[in-house]
Specification:
Blueprint lengths: L4 E2 L12 H29 L5 H16 L4 H4 L5 H17 L7 H29 L5 H26 L7 H22 L3 E2 L15 H27 L5 H54 L4 H16 L2 H10 L5 H12 L1 H16 L1 H19 L24
Parallel strand pairs: 1-2
Helix pairs in contact: 1-4, 1-5, 1-6, 1-7, 1-9, 2-5, 2-8, 2-13, 4-5, 4-7, 5-12, 6-9, 8-10, 8-12, 8-13, 8-14, 9-10, 9-11, 9-14, 13-14
Length: 410
């Protein structure tokens, strides 16, 4: 079906071909490649490529460069529909994941990781835009929670297969990378062929925009990106380097996270709808500050592996509350701004990501605890910013300061 279908007419389609189902299929597909790669990466780079902390920091710096350049999505969607771009990016992620084990060196992994990251970050940028355009505001928090749960369920299956088969069948890294990447590629192509193109009711602005009234959202995105890098890069690396976790052990920890998230994520969506973005973000950032401080305590006070594993699980739960930042923006945004602002926000989110992993990788060699202490400080800054979110955000009421400095919506 070549002619785009307005969202208002999509209900006439069979259930499995509707936009909401496509969002769920995409939410299921991306984690297959990305989380299989994540589950194996720390062990692969240590056991096969002989990485140290500085090397893993450099790898993640390169991985985040496409995120920093996500603003380029604005130029691409002038020529390619968002839905098509998202699925092509998903396919690229699958291909790059499939061939990861073919490049067991620092230079090779930097090369293939760059292409994998282009697919991941362009997909995530477009996916966030489509979610906010396609989901009604009154149901967005709950639906976003269910989408998180779907991603967790897909990842649980992948991790479960790794845990059950890794040692029993003496699997090679290449086998798992190829299987996960190939399945993601297949599903992305299926979605390209099987689903019609959907038209959101509001045409998107296809140029770079920076709205003064979105300043708090931009700052929260910047801090979230800086803070997230420390967790993504170093929390899992700590479990392997300090506590000697094997692939199946680290994956088992991931599975615990996923089983909890499958249950908790929909409830978190309901919590955002009930308590509002302000209270949710305050709770998230206060919790993250405590978690990161405790991570530092593992190195400063010699706390054990059980606490590290518990903190890792709590970390994942709190990060699921990031959906509140999405719905905060959905409530304050001009509907035409969603696509370009999603791209700008991804770039802002990754400003720190381009240099932090490499710099903190060097700091990690000297003092791992200091890295987590810095993350706790970042969470406290985010906590302070979250106090500026109003209880009922909307255009013209983007922050609690809006009433003191009124300005027309741009």
């Amino acid at each position: 079906m070549l002619k785009p279908i307005p969202l208002s007419e999509a209900e006439n389609l069979p259930l499995w071909r509707r936009p909401i189902v496509l969002l769920f299929v995409m939410a299921m597909t991306m984690p297959i490649a990305f989380n299989a790669w994540s589950a194996l990466l720390n062990n692969f780079v240590i056991e096969v490529a002989n990485f140290d902390g500085a090397d893993i920091g450099l790898l993640h710096t390169v991985r985040e460069i496409p995120g920093f350049l996500a603003v380029g999505v604005i130029a691409v969607i002038i020529f390619v529909r968002e839905q098509v771009l998202g699925l092509i990016s998903l396919a690229l992620l699958g291909v790059a994941t499939a061939v990861t084990a073919w490049f067991p060196s620092l230079g090779g992994l930097l090369f293939v990781t760059l292409f994998s990251s282009i697919g991941f970050h362009y997909y995530e940028t477009v996916n966030q835009s489509l979610q906010l355009q396609w989901l009604p505001k009154d149901r967005a928090p709950q639906t976003l929670g269910w989408l998180v749960a779907m991603g967790s369920a897909a990842t649980l299956v992948i991790y479960g297969l790794i845990v059950l088969t890794w040692e029993r069948f003496d699997l090679a890294y290449n086998t798992v990378f190829m299987a996960a990447g190939g399945l993601t590629l297949f599903l992305a192509v299926f979605c390209l062929v099987a689903y019609p193109q959907f038209d959101a009711p509001t045409p998107q602005t296809k140029k770079l925009i920076l709205r003064r009234r979105y300043w708090l959202y931009y700052l929260l995105q910047f801090m979230a990106g800086a803070r997230r890098q420390i967790f993504v890069v170093f929390a899992g690396f700590m479990m392997v380097e300090k506590f000697g976790f094997d692939v199946h052990e680290l994956t088992g920890l991931y599975m615990i996270n996923l089983m909890i998230n499958m249950t908790v994520a929909p409830l978190l969506g309901k919590a955002v709808a009930r308590f509002g973005e302000r209270r949710t973000l305050i709770f998230e950032y206060a919790g993250l500050a405590l978690v990161f401080a405790a991570y530092g305590g593992i190195y400063w006070f010699g706390w054990g592996v059980l606490l590290a594993a518990v903190l890792y699980v709590i970390d994942h739960i709190l990060f699921a509350l990031a959906l509140a930042l999405k719905t905060y923006f959905q409530k304050i945004a001009d509907p035409a701004d969603i696509a370009p602002t999603a791209a700008v926000a991804f770039t802002i989110n990754h400003i720190a990501a381009v240099f932090l992993p490499a710099l903190l990788g060097l700091l990690w060699v000297i003092s791992p605890g200091a890295v987590f202490g810095l993350a706790a400080a970042m969470a406290l800054i985010s906590l302070g910013l979250s106090l500026l979110v109003p209880r009922h955000p909307e255009p013209g009421n983007e922050t609690i300061l809006s009433k003191y400095a009124p300005a027309p919506a741009e």
